[in-house]
Amino acid sequence: MRPYDIIYKKREGQKLSPEEIRYLINEYTAGKIPDYQVSAWAMAVFFQGMDAEETADLTMAMAESGDILDLSEIEGIKVDKHSTGGVGDTTTLVLAPLVASAGVPVAKLSGRGLGHTGGTIDKLESIPGFKTSLSREEFINNVNNVGVAVAGQTANLTPADKKLYGLRDVTATIESIPLIASSIMSKKIAGGADGIVLDVKVGNGAFMKGIDEAHSLGKAMVAIGHEVGRETIAVLTNMDQPLGQAVGNSLELKEAIQTLRGKGPNDLRELSLILGANMLTIAKGVDNFNEGYSLLSENLSSGKALCQFKKFIGRQGADPAVVDDLELLPEAENVIEIKSRSDGFISSINAREIGLTVMMIGGGRVVKDDAIDPAVGVVLLKKNGEEVLKGETIAKLYLNDLSHQQEAVKRLEKAFVITDEEPSKKDLVIDIIK
């Protein structure tokens, strides 16, 4: 078997066999096929695409290129949730203890933030003492003892995906549905999931800007799940403005705790309930979506989910007292108010600009080794559709280093578009694909 033949076959629009795909991925991971040949193959895939079977074969080849976490020691159906990345996307912090409070085990591997989207691990590490590096035994014991564990991904999880993603990033082949779908799903499968709920973000703050391409991605990932025997649901959700009000690690953590207290922003609460109810349905913890939604709503109102969060963070080395006293979490030294420039209605908020502003002031990474300031960020006091008066505070900027203050204020002011007419309301959930 030769890489040349595989490249030529895909260039001509022909279907690759499972053996050809496995050979290409295994040999590339082992360093036996050079970057330039895999770059040519990726470009051929970019233009010619892959069918559902090919994409599933690629997914499994990447998943099997490294460690696959065996979660068989955890009783029950393990359902993972993945977001394609957004701004203020705090759902995992709410979902993990919320779903666990309903008796469904949550064993989740999460990543760090890069660019304008945040990472769950960074948010959790805002809690003093919280440990995200767990051995396999610790990870499984935590789930068995307190119902939930969230840890960083192991170094040898899907090494093929790491190599291929880095190559795609510099060869203009990122925007390929089969390559995106297989990248996401390979990590979920390698993480030991029996079932998967996908939060596919759509809008100016998301990777997928348009509904059509988000539909294509959601359908491709659900098809992969079906092909490899994992029940999978994709929920397409609006990211034309940040989710919730807080953007920034410690600020988002505080907002998640408020949501677990039965408060918090309506959109974060609602999306957490919708994703969670789908997770319970896949895990057979309830008979249907409505039953799951009602159960999780009750667990938020009763404090059961909050109690689960305390057990979870305590088990991973943090002091549960932070749940009762949010001032124990990192706080910025300076708070700058962003004022409305006119009367009117908030017609749009550029979520990507909000995320980039937080990254600029130290709340995110340009490269993976950048240090993060957990205290900095932005809190939105007004969201899309709300009426504002000139001079009214529409957001707050939380800073430690003031060197970027002026630029950050200008970017935030421009991120808010204010018009005379009240805009039409956009749904939080656009579609659900099963």
Automatic annotation (TrEMBL):
<dbReference type="InterPro" id="IPR036566">
    <property type="entry name" value="PYNP-like_C_sf"/>
</dbReference>
<dbReference type="GO" id="GO:0006206">
    <property type="term" value="P:pyrimidine nucleobase metabolic process"/>
</dbReference>
<dbReference type="InterPro" id="IPR000053">
    <property type="entry name" value="Thymidine/pyrmidine_PPase"/>
</dbReference>
<dbReference type="GO" id="GO:0009032">
    <property type="term" value="F:thymidine phosphorylase activity"/>
</dbReference>
<dbReference type="GO" id="GO:0005829">
    <property type="term" value="C:cytosol"/>
</dbReference>
<dbReference type="InterPro" id="IPR018090">
    <property type="entry name" value="Pyrmidine_PPas_bac/euk"/>
</dbReference>
<comment type="subunit">
    <text>Homodimer.</text>
</comment>
<dbReference type="InterPro" id="IPR017459">
    <property type="entry name" value="Glycosyl_Trfase_fam3_N_dom"/>
</dbReference>
<keyword id="KW-0808">Transferase</keyword>
<dbReference type="InterPro" id="IPR017872">
    <property type="entry name" value="Pyrmidine_PPase_CS"/>
</dbReference>
<dbReference type="GO" id="GO:0006213">
    <property type="term" value="P:pyrimidine nucleoside metabolic process"/>
</dbReference>
<keyword id="KW-0328">Glycosyltransferase</keyword>
<feature type="domain" description="Pyrimidine nucleoside phosphorylase C-terminal">
    <location>
        <begin position="345"/>
        <end position="419"/>
    </location>
</feature>
<dbReference type="Pfam" id="PF02885">
    <property type="entry name" value="Glycos_trans_3N"/>
</dbReference>
<comment type="function">
    <text>Catalyzes phosphorolysis of the pyrimidine nucleosides uridine, thymidine and 2'-deoxyuridine with the formation of the corresponding pyrimidine base and ribose-1-phosphate.</text>
</comment>
<dbReference type="InterPro" id="IPR035902">
    <property type="entry name" value="Nuc_phospho_transferase"/>
</dbReference>
<dbReference type="InterPro" id="IPR036320">
    <property type="entry name" value="Glycosyl_Trfase_fam3_N_dom_sf"/>
</dbReference>
<dbReference type="Pfam" id="PF00591">
    <property type="entry name" value="Glycos_transf_3"/>
</dbReference>
<dbReference type="InterPro" id="IPR013102">
    <property type="entry name" value="PYNP_C"/>
</dbReference>
<comment type="similarity">
    <text>Belongs to the thymidine/pyrimidine-nucleoside phosphorylase family.</text>
</comment>
<dbReference type="InterPro" id="IPR000312">
    <property type="entry name" value="Glycosyl_Trfase_fam3"/>
</dbReference>
<protein>
    <recommendedName>
        <fullName>Pyrimidine-nucleoside phosphorylase</fullName>
        <ecNumber>2.4.2.2</ecNumber>
    </recommendedName>
</protein>
<dbReference type="GO" id="GO:0004645">
    <property type="term" value="F:1,4-alpha-oligoglucan phosphorylase activity"/>
</dbReference>
<dbReference type="Pfam" id="PF07831">
    <property type="entry name" value="PYNP_C"/>
</dbReference>
